Amino acid sequence: MKIIPTHIPDVLILEPQVFGDARGFFMETWNAKTFADAGLNLNFVQDNHSRSRQGTLRGMHYQIKHPQGKLVRVTSGKVFDVAVDLRQSSPTFGQWAGAELSDEDHRMLWVPPGFAHGFYVMSESADFLYKCTDLYAPEYDRSLHWNDPSIGIEWPLVNGAAPTISAKDEAGKNWQEADKFA
Ligand SMILES: Cc1cn([C@H]2C[C@H](O)[C@@H](COP(=O)(O)OP(=O)(O)O[C@H]3O[C@@H](C)C(=O)[C@@H](O)[C@H]3O)O2)c(=O)[nH]c1=O
């Protein structure tokens, strides 16, 4: 597995080794020892799968208690995936890191606990799979507004069109009002 740091050192792009042959390909997407050897001792307790149409933006989500670390990947299509550092004690507090993830590059992103996370679907549709280090806790679920100017995420919006978002995310909090981590 190749590990590519982003400019936020805790947010990592992971490229699994892909074994191609006449049948197709094989790759390991999660191996506790490989990740531990890379410094990521993770205990996953929930797996999620969402499918979204082109132009959908889900985010920026976090749980203020029971924060989840997320190992995310795309099995069909292409997304732009983003993590925002909400840890006030962090030197990269308030910064965002993004990466394209697709079914062709097989890249994964490690989003640590303490980050808001979201993605935008660039392809016709996308299947998005992720492992989480804590369980869904809806009472602590929070949404930071995807387009807050003080964060300034550079979303690659298709034809510049406004994204499709949920009512919850439409009402996402701005940076000043959003709950943050210590
Ligand atoms: C996240 C989640 C949702 N749900 C339910 C609640 C709701 O009825 C329905 C859809 O929920 P949402 O609109 O919150 O789904 P979605 O917008 O896809 O939420 C996800 O977005 C990405 C960006 C993340 O990072 C995830 O952690 C998660 O917050 O699914 C669960 O049952 N378990 C879960 O873990």
TrEMBL record:
The keyword Secreted does not apply. The keyword Flavoprotein does not apply. InterPro entries: RmlC-like, RmlC-like_jellyroll, RmlC_Cupin_sf. Coiled coil: none annotated. GO terms for molecular function: dTDP-4-dehydrorhamnose 3,5-epimerase activity. It catalyses: dTDP-4-dehydro-6-deoxy-alpha-D-glucose = dTDP-4-dehydro-beta-L-rhamnose. Its EC number is 5.1.3.13. CDD domains: cupin_RmlC (cd00438). It is an enzyme of class 5 (isomerase). Gene3D superfamilies: Jelly Rolls. Pathway: Carbohydrate biosynthesis; dTDP-L-rhamnose biosynthesis. Signal peptide: none annotated. Keywords: Isomerase. Belongs to the dTDP-4-dehydrorhamnose 3,5-epimerase family. Catalyzes the epimerization of the C3' and C5'positions of dTDP-6-deoxy-D-xylo-4-hexulose, forming dTDP-6-deoxy-L-lyxo-4-hexulose. PANTHER family: DTDP-6-DEOXY-D-GLUCOSE-3,5 EPIMERASE (PTHR21047), THYMIDINE DIPHOSPHO-4-KETO-RHAMNOSE 3,5-EPIMERASE (PTHR21047:SF2). This is dTDP-4-dehydrorhamnose 3,5-epimerase. It comes from Thiothrix litoralis. The lineage of its organism: Bacteria, Pseudomonadati, Pseudomonadota, Gammaproteobacteria, Thiotrichales.
